[in-house]
């Protein structure tokens, strides 16, 4: 569908209610804290498969983190040695207030340009960057991340289309989400929300989950666009897929065969490179 906004108000209010506990490592976001190391590993894996032309270890990366929440990933990316800047956006002012407050604890994150939080949706990003004085050629990023967001979006394809122009040629779009399968329902809805109460009830809607194969097909279809659309949305590599599972007491672990094996236990990472 081509609805104009990707922001679902009921999703925003759900995450606003969790804002205060975002940085509590034992709170409702503890699974996201545990996921951070594997997010970093997956980005490294993607980039080592196709090193960008002219890349050297002196090259510094620019990140755009969409739906950054309280900043769990954005902060960790901003601390990496090869990071030039992280721009992190979220439509919820309450959650961003928590992110900004937490970032003030680390002098490194206060260096000008290192970590910038913007209260905007993807639809409002171009205007917001313009208001910040970011010039046109700096509005594309080496790594655009979308972690645990796609399963909360009502119209995933139009949402993704709005993101693609922000990935620079040779750059990566990296996301993690949940596959729409019965095992995923059992693990993420029944066990996590109802039985173990690891995440608050109502966090997920099974109908909104997207399968890796659906994403794969969607990116393949982009190749058939006309010249103008191709210029805007780009041509994309074959995706890198990694299925993961949360093991209580051990954290997140890779499972399955790169999205080709037991596709559908639940959570997975998906990376595509703009050609």
TrEMBL record:
GO terms for biological process: methylation. This is Ubiquinone biosynthesis O-methyltransferase. One of its GO terms (cellular component) is mitochondrion. NCBIfam families: UbiG. GO terms for molecular function: 3-demethylubiquinol 3-O-methyltransferase activity; polyprenyldihydroxybenzoate methyltransferase activity. Keywords: Methyltransferase, S-adenosyl-L-methionine, Transferase, Ubiquinone, Ubiquinone biosynthesis. CDD domains: AdoMet_MTases. InterPro entries: SAM-dependent_MTases_sf (IPR029063), UbiG_MeTrfase (IPR010233). The keyword S-adenosyl-L-methionine applies.
